[in-house]
Design brief:
The protein is α+β, with helices and mostly antiparallel strands. It is 39% helix and 27% strand. Helix 2 packs parallel to helix 5. The mean pLDDT is 90.
């Protein structure tokens, strides 16, 4: 067994390295397809998520207060907002899908990158370190803005409804790209 195969075996025994620690349902089929190929393995993945995060200064950085990997429902988001007592700035952030794939060599990385970009993941790129060659599969359906300050909501319910609609629409675009990439991988 070569070192790539050994690393793949070792990594796939462990939890996904994403902050959630496991595959989202919407990205599970893609990860399984990638990992079934002898020349690739995933180390972390996310089908996209929305978060409320508290901005902190210093070494503690930001802190997630609420996370959703599914479409947002207004009442659920409003309940989460209602339970936040932070005096710091709280941001709403909607993130697009991201999957990190380790590749056997640069030629396989180029092939995967080509398929990712043709599937709509235009912000994807190849990452090379001393130990590995990988492809970070990304797209750009993102939103981010300050939502609360000193415990007070900074936006109206109408604005919040519009943001939920836009986030859900962007999330759906990301999920469609995941499905397209599954089909494009041979």
């Amino acid at each position: 067994m070569d070192s790539f195969e050994q690393r793949k075996k070792d990594i796939l025994k462990k939890e996904d390295k994403s902050s959630k620690g496991s595959w989202d349902l919407k990205v599970k089929d893609l990860c399984e397809k990638i990992n079934s190929n002898l020349n690739y393995y995933t180390t972390s993945s996310c089908s996209g998520k929305c978060v409320l995060l508290e901005e902190r200064t210093g070494k503690n950085g930001s802190y997630y207060l609420w996370t959703s990997h599914e479409s947002i429902i207004f009442e659920e988001l409003f309940l989460a907002i209602d339970n936040i007592g932070s005096k710091n700035v709280v941001k709403f952030k909607s993130e697009s899908p991201i999957i990190f794939v380790v590749c056997r060599d640069i030629d396989f990385a180029k092939k995967l990158l080509k398929e990712a970009v043709s599937s709509g993941f235009k912000e994807s790129g190849i990452k090379i370190t001393e130990k590995l060659i990988g492809v970070e599969i990304r797209s750009g359906e993102k939103l981010e803005f300050p939502l609360m300050k000193e415990g007070n909501l900074l936006v109206s319910n109408d604005f919040l409804n519009e943001i939920i609609n836009q986030s859900n629409s962007r999330r759906k675009i990301g999920w469609e790209k995941i499905e397209k990439l599954i089909l494009n991988l041979s």
